[in-house]
Write a sequence for this structure.
C-alpha cells in the first residue's frame, strides 16, 4: 500500500485506539506522531492491522502518504498542541484538504481555526469523540461539526468506526463550524453532573447510613437493571465492588477525594451563562470538583463543624427515584444550553439526533436517551424537554423523593450540591410567579433600570423616593 485517504496524527491512548479501529474496518490509514520513534512500535503492536497502516516519520512523509483530497485526524491534547500541528501541516496541504480535530477542544478555538484555514482553502472539522479508550477502539459516539461538504469524504469511515445502537450508527454531522465540539462539550457537562449525582448518593449511603462500598455497589447494580440503566451506573457499581490488591481494602476507600478536570465541564457552565442560561446541576458538579481540591481546608472545617448524626428519613426507593429525576434534569439543562447555542450560532442542531448518537458508545449513554430522542421528535410543551409527557411520572415521583433526600442530607450536614441545584432549578421552572419582581424593583430603585408591568405594556419606573 502506498497511499491512504485518511491520516491520523497522535498515537497516545485515544489516537492509537482510534487508528486500530479505522484499520480494523478496512480503511487504509497513514499514521504519525510528533515523536516519530513511536511509529514503528505502534505498527509492530498493531499486528495484522498493520496491513492497512502506513507509518509516516515526518509531516512531509505523512502528506505524501495521502491521496487528495486529504483528511487528517488530530488526536492530540486540546489547545497549543493542535495549534502547533496545524501550523506545521497547513502549508503542506492543498486546497480542499481537511484537518479534523478529534480532541476535546473549546468550540471558540474550533471556530477561529476554521476561519483561519478557510482563508487557505482548507476545511477544519471539530469532531467530538466520546467513549474513552474502549470506545475509540471498538465504537465511540462521534459528533461532527464543520463545513458539511467536508463530512462527505470521511462519512463512510466515521460511520463504520462508530458505536451502533440497534443498527443505527452513533455518529453524525450536527452543524457547521463549532457545532460538533460544542455538542461534545455539553455531553461532558452532563457527564460531570451525572457523575457528581451518583457520587452524592454514594456519599449519603456511606456517611448517612454507614453502608460499605460492596453493598452500595450491589445496590447500584440493582438500579442499573431498571430506569437508571447507564454506563456510568454500571461502572460505579463495579468500582464500588472492586478491592485494592495491595491493601485488600475497597478500592474506592483508598482513592483520594480530589477530582481533576480538564475544562469541558467548566466551558459548559461558562457558555450556558453567556447564553443567558444556567446549567446549575453541571455548575454544581464543576464546583464540587473545585472544592474537592481544597482537602486540607475541608479537614479543618470538619473538625470545626462536625456532622450531626440524624437517622435517614428516606428509603432506597427514594434514592433511586431521586437520582433518576436529577439525571433527567441534568439532561434537560444540557439540551437547553445546546438549543440556545444552536439558535445563537445558527447551527440548526437536531436535538433528537444528538440524543440518538449518544445512545451507545459515549460516556453518558443511558436508557433515558431513547426516550429523550422520542420526546424531541414529538411536541414538547413550551419546547422544553423537562416538560415531556414521557418524563412526567418519573419527575413527579422523583422530585418528592428528592425533597426527602435533600432535607435529610441538609439536616445531617451532608453536602448534596448537584441534587440541591437540580431541585432549585426544577422548583423555579414550576413556579409561575417567581420573585424577580423584587429584583427588578431594587434595580429600578437604585439605578432607574426600569421594569415591565403586568397590567400595562412598555417600560416603567416605580414611585420610589425622589
Ligand atoms: C468521553 C469523556 C472524555 C474525558 C473527558 C473528561 O466522552 O469519552 O468525556 O472525553 O473523560 O476529557 O475529562 P475531565 O473529567 O478530566 O474533565
Amino acid at each position: 500500500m502506498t497511499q491512504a485517504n485518511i491520516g491520523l496524527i497522535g498515537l497516545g491512548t485515544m489516537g492509537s485506539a482510534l487508528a486500530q479501529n479505522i484499520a480494523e474496518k478496512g480503511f487504509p490509514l497513514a499514521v504519525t506522531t510528533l515523536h516519530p520513534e513511536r511509529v514503528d512500535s505502534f505498527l509492530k503492536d498493531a499486528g495484522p492491522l498493520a496491513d492497512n497502516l502506513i507509518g509516516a516519520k515526518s509531516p512531509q512523509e505523512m502528506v505524501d502518504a495521502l491521496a487528495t483530497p486529504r483528511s487528517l485526524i488530530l488526536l492530540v491534547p486540546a489547545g497549543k498542541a493542535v495549534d502547533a500541528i496545524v501550523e506545521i501541516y497547513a502549508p503542506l496541504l492543498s486546497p480542499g484538504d481537511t484537518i479534523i480535530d478529534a480532541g476535546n477542544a473549546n468550540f471558540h478555538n474550533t471556530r477561529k481555526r476554521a476561519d483561519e484555514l478557510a482563508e487557505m482553502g482548507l476545511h477544519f472539522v471539530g469532531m467530538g469523540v466520546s467513549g474513552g479508550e474502549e470506545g475509540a477502539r471498538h465504537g465511540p459516539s462521534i459528533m461532527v461539526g464543520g463545513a458539511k461538504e467536508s463530512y462527505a469524504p470521511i462519512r463512510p469511515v466515521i460511520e463504520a468506526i462508530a458505536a451502533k445502537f440497534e443498527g443505527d450508527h452513533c455518529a453524525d454531522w450536527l452543524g457547521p463550524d463549532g457545532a460538533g465540539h460544542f455538542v461534545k462539550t455539553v455531553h461532558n457537562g452532563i457527564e460531570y453532573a451525572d457523575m457528581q449525582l451518583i457520587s452524592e448518593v454514594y456519599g449519603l449511603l456511606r456517611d448517612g447510613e454507614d453502608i460499605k462500598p460492596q453493598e452500595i455497589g450491589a445496590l447500584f447494580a440493582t438500579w442499573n437493571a431498571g430506569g437508571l440503566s447507564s454506563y456510568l451506573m454500571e461502572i460505579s457499581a463495579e468500582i464500588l465492588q472492586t478491592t485494592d490488591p495491595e491493601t485488600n481494602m475497597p478500592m474506592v476507600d483508598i482513592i483520594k477525594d480530589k477530582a481533576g478536570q480538564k475544562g469541558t465541564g467548566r466551558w459548559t457552565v461558562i457558555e450556558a451563562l453567556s447564553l443567558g442560561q444556567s446549567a446549575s446541576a453541571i455548575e454544581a458538579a464543576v464546583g464540587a470538583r473545585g472544592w474537592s481540591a481544597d482537602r486540607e481546608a475541608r479537614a479543618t472545617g470538619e473538625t470545626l463543624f462536625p456532622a450531626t448524626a440524624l437517622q435517614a428519613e428516606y428509603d432506597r426507593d427514594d434514592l433511586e427515584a431521586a437520582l433518576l429525576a436529577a439525571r433527567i434534569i441534568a439532561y434537560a439543562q444540557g439540551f437547553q444550553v445546546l438549543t440556545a447555542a444552536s439558535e445563537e450560532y445558527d447551527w440548526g442542531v437536531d436535538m433528537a439526533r444528538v440524543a440518538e448518537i449518544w445512545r451507545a458508545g459515549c460516556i453518558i449513554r443511558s436508557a433515558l436517551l431513547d426516550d429523550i430522542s422520542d420526546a424531541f421528535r414529538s411536541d414538547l410543551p413550551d419546547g422544553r424537554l423537562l416538560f415531556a409527557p414521557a418524563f412526567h411520572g418519573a419527575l413527579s415521583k422523583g422530585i418528592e423523593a428528592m425533597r426527602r433526600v435533600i432535607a435529610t442530607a441538609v439536616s445531617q450536614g451532608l453536602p448534596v450540591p448537584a441534587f440541591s441545584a437540580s431541585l432549585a432549578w426544577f422548583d423555579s421552572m414550576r413556579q409561575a410567579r417567581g420573585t424577580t419582581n423584587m429584583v427588578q424593583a431594587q434595580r429600578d430603585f437604585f439605578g432607574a433600570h426600569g421594569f415591565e408591568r403586568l397590567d400595562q405594556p412598555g417600560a416603567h419606573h416605580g414611585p420610589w423616593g425622589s
